[in-house]
Amino acid sequence: MESPNKIKTYKEFYQFYLTEHSKPLTRAFHFLGILLVFAVIFYVLQSGKERFLWYCPIFGYGFAWFSHAVFERNTPSTFKYPIWSLTSDFRLFFELLIGKQKFSK
Fold first, then answer.
1. CA 37 – CA 10 distance, rounded (Å)
2. Which pLDDT belongs to residue 2?
3. Torsion sign across C-alpha atoms 36, 41, 44, 49
4. How far apart are the C-alpha atoms of 83 and 69, rounded to whole Å?
5. Which terminus has fewer CB within 10 Å in the chain: N or C?
6. How many angstroms separate the CA atoms of 97 and 105, rounded?
């Protein structure tokens, strides 16, 4: 049986995601993690050293999960909504980059 609190649409999820990422340091750590993911991908494309790709999940999830444990004090939405959460990490990164979202409220 489906839980009554289960989020059914991505639009609804993203609003929830933003409330779970409300603290400036959480947003900063997520931004830094995704930035490092892009840096690793760029390095791998330039160097051809694919063995460094394993750093991507470590940087991406490591910085994010650390910020949830230390700053937000909540459970990352990755465990319940893995695809939407990953998509939202990149969406938030780009929205912070262009100024659509702010690091602080």
1. 23
2. 52
3. positive
4. 20
5. N
6. 15
Q: How far is CA 9 from CA 15, 22, 103, in A?
A: 10, 21, 25
The pLDDT tens digits for 61-97 are 999 999 999 999 999 999 999 999 999 999 999 999 9
Within a 10 A sphere around the Cβ of 15, how many other Cβ atoms? 11
pLDDT tens-digit map of 20-62: 999 999 999 999 999 999 999 999 999 999 999 999 999 999 9
Of residues 7, 14, 40, 38, the one with CA closest to residue 95: 14
Other Cβ atoms less than 10 A from the Cβ of 98: the count is: 8
